[in-house]
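Consider the tokenized backbone below.
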């Protein structure tokens, strides 16, 4: 069976999990949590990080610590429900924005909505491992005084070149160097969140990390994630509602092993994408990459010129290959039938013609070519 994007262990994870067991720190406290937070924080060059049980809880806490409740929140319609549910947890109203030709939030519709709706926050989403136009989204967020949260659940390791003295500083490689002057998905807004669930670039089985350059926000989120238990007391004292959102030391041990191979994994994801692209460009168009950005190609995604994606999914399944439709736009979901949406038809078009191809880094070139052959003969 070829799965969509299954876990791919480095080999070190079990050793670290064993270490965690031997120390008997198998609870949501311990050395591996600190090490995992440190590794993620250093990789994406953020000032502070907080390991959590998943990314959904990270987005919820982000809204909570930034005071976004009972307000309007802008979010792309072309995303996973995990970007939107946290908006509802805090009794906010989502306002959906359709896509542009890069499959990300359309900036004209975004500005229109910012003017008319006066939202308190924007949740920008970097879908399928590719950077959204975050520099321009940030510009608009600042212009209209909206808080900016980045849902980088799918895009750990994606980055854009950093603007310096009005010029883009180029570095077209995932290799790190002293002048690696780039900004990672998740580090441009007020708070960013990554997912480490089972099908992501890296996994801790289930997990999330919140990052921010504002250490006070992370401190506050850390407090809320542990049932808001006040420090400095022997007995348990609580002054506000808290949550049980922390990551366990065991899962963090897996995360430490995974972070050691992040560059290799990104390299392989991009190689897989390149094979698909070279083999299938006659029958499909691939999700574009914004200029001046480097995406991870977490999933290779395309829209067919003629084929029906749902027929292709069936055919791949008959060959024991997993694939998936693109996100069904949120404004077409029964849950959001009455929600406000700024629509241009693009996300519905992508959904009707698009597919996520199996993109696991465990696949070899032959596996990828076999998928291509089935698609070409469809
Ligand atoms: C865009 C997006 N946002 C949020 C989430 C939620 O992440 P998690 O499953 O870690 O809660 C996911 C993935 O599952 C996602 O793809």
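A designed sequence for it:
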């Amino acid at each position: 069976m070829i799965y969509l994007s299954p876990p791919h262990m480095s080999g070190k994870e079990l050793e670290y999990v064993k270490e965690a067991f031997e120390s008997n720190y198998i609870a949501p406290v311990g050395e591996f949590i600190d090490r995992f937070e440190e590794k993620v924080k250093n990789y994406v060059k953020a000032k502070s990080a907080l390991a959590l049980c998943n990314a959904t809880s990270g987005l919820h806490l982000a809204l909570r610590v930034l005071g976004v409740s009972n307000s309007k929140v802008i979010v792309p319609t072309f995303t996973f429900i995990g970007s939107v549910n946290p908006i509802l947890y805090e009794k906010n109203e989502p306002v959906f924005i359709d896509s542009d030709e890069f499959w990300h939030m359309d900036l004209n519709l975004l500005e229109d909505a910012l003017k008319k709706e006066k939202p308190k926050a924007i949740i920008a989403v970097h879908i399928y491992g590719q950077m959204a136009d975050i520099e321009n989204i940030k510009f608009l967020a600042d212009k209209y005084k909206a808080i900016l949260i980045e849902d980088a659940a799918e895009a750990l390791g994606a980055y854009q070149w950093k603007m310096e003295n009005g010029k883009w500083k180029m570095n077209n490689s995932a290799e790190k160097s002293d002048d690696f002057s780039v900004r990672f998905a998740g580090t441009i807004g007020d708070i960013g969140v990554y997912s480490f669930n089972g099908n992501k670039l890296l996994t801790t089985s289930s997990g999330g990390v919140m990052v921010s350059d504002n250490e006070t926000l992370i401190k506050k989120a850390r407090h809320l994630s542990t049932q808001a238990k006040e420090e400095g007391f022997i007995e348990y004292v609580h002054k506000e509602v808290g949550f049980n959102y922390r990551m366990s030391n065991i899962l963090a041990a897996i995360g430490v092993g995974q972070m050691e191979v992040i560059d290799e994994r990104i390299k392989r994801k991009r190689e897989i994408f390149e094979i698909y692209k070279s083999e299938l460009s006659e029958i499909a168009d691939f999700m574009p990459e914004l200029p001046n950005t480097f995406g991870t190609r977490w999933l290779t995604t395309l829209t067919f010129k003629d084929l029906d994606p749902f027929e292709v999914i069936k055919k791949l399944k008959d060959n024991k290959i997993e694939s998936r439709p693109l996100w069904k736009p949120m404004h077409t979901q029964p849950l959001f039938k009455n929600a406000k949406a700024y629509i241009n038809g693009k996300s519905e078009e992508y959904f009707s013609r698009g597919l996520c191809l199996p993109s696991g880094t465990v696949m070899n070139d032959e596996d990828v070519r076999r998928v291509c052959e089935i698609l070409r003969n469809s």
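The chain has twelve helices and 16 strands.
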